[in-house]
Amino acid sequence: MSATAPAPPGILGQRRLRREDPALLTGEARFVADLDVPGALHLAFVRSTLAHARISSVDVSAALAMPGVVAAFTGADLERDWAAPLPCAWPVTADMKAPRHLPLAVDKVCYMGDAVAVVVAESEYLARDAAEQVFVEYDPLPAVVGIDDALSDRVVIHEELGTNTSYTWELAPDATAVEAAFSSATHRVHGHYVQQRLIPAAIEPRGVVVVPQPFGGEFTVFSSTQIPHILKVMLALTSGIAETSIRVIAPSVGGGFGSKLNVYAEELATLVLAKRLRRPIRWIETRSEGTQATIQGRGQIQDIELAADAEGRVTAVRVKLLADMGAYLQLVTPGVPILGAFLYSGVYDVPAYSISCTSVFTNLTPTDAYRGAGRPEATYAIERAMDALARQVGVDPAEIRRRNYIKAEKFPYASAAGLVYDSGAYEAALDRALELAGYQELRAEQARRRESGDSVQLGIGLSSYMEMCGLAPSRVLASLNYSAGGWEAATVRLLPTGKVQVVTGTSPHGQGHETSWSMIAADRLGVSPDDVEVLHSDTAVAPYGLDTYGSRSLSVGGVAVAIATDRVIEKARKIVAHQLEVADEDLELAGGAFTVKGSPDRSMPLGAVAFEAFTAHDLPDGLEPNLEASCHFDPPNFTFPFGTHVAVVEVDLETGRVILRSYVAVDDCGNQVNPLIVEGQVHGGVAQGVAQALFEKASYDEQGTLLTSTLLDYLVPAASELPSFVTASTVTPSPTNLLGVKGVGEAGTIGSAPAVINAVCDALARQGIHDIEMPATPERVWRALKEVAAR
Amino acid sequence: MIPASFEYTRASSVGEAVRMLAAGGEDAKVLAGGHSLLPLMKLRMATPSLLVDVGRVRELSYVRDAGDSLAVGALTRHFDLSRDELVARHAPLLAAVAGQIGDPQVRHRGTIGGSIAHGDPASDLPAACLALGASFVAVGPSGERRIAAADFFTGFLETALAPGELLVEIVVPKATGAGWSFQKFNRRAQDWAIVGCAVVRDGSTRVALVNMGASPLRSPGAEQALAAGASVAEAAERACDGLEPPSDLNASAEYRRHLASVLVTRALAEAGGAPGQEASP
Question: Could you tell me if A630 and A562 are in contact, meaning their C-beta atoms sit under 8 angstroms apart?
Answer without folding.
Answer: no
